[in-house]
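FW: tagging you since you asked about this chain on Friday. Here's the raw sequence from the shared folder, copied in full. Didn't touch anything.
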Amino acid sequence: MARYFLTLSYNGTEYNGWQIQKNTKNTIQQILEENISLILKEKIELTGCGRTDAGVNAKNFIAHFDSFSQDLIENKPDWIYKFNNLLPSNISIQDIRKVKSDAHARFNATQRVYYYYLQQEKNPFKDIFSWYVYGNLDFELMNKAAEILLEYTDFTSFSKLHTQNKTNTCTITKAIWKNCGKNEWRFSISADRFLRGMVRAIVGTLILVGKNKLSLAEFRKIIETKDRKVAGNNAPANALFLVSISYSKDIFYE
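HL: got it, structure written out here
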């Protein structure tokens, strides 16, 4: 058996998140496993680098799988073409890499980066992947609040309730809003790991800061309270993108 890392991207608008669920059909993992198993003529099970929620998108997502096929690297362009030719248009595979047998897409990841897009002017060509927020927002104040995140490691206040996480500890290394066009903003956040719903909860709470409904002291208090009920609502899923996953080079054969 050989183990491979798949690099893929997807528009999550029409899917119920990444992970296969007992009572929920139409997930990214399900679609990929069905189609890749068909092409390779063996049962393929994928393990993702994370678990994106329903409606969330990924520009770079990593998943690993084991296969009896030994020539996926030698004939990589052909295999990528075969996979993409069968997959729906909103899922695309960019790369296949052979890794060591114990390499793990989730547990070996050292850093993850998410982008969240916001616009303050209604635009029918961008609304599908951006959150339209009306009214004045103090982005300078929002960035001061975002900097506070780097001082903490327990983000229970921004995590979905009743998850299977053993710990709510994360190390955030970057969190900043930047202007990326007329009335367009992008929030970038990097960490070693993220909790379920964490980025959307952070964005929703930062918006309250930007609208002067929360002070910096109150934002800090929300983190320290470790209670999801005191934080803001989740920002919409459609504007969130997983954009980067980092790994140590020593897990790859190439």
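FW: Residues 2-107 form a domain with the Alpha-Beta Plaits fold (CATH 3.30.70.580).
HL: agreed, and The chain has a mean pLDDT of 94.
FW: great, closing this out.
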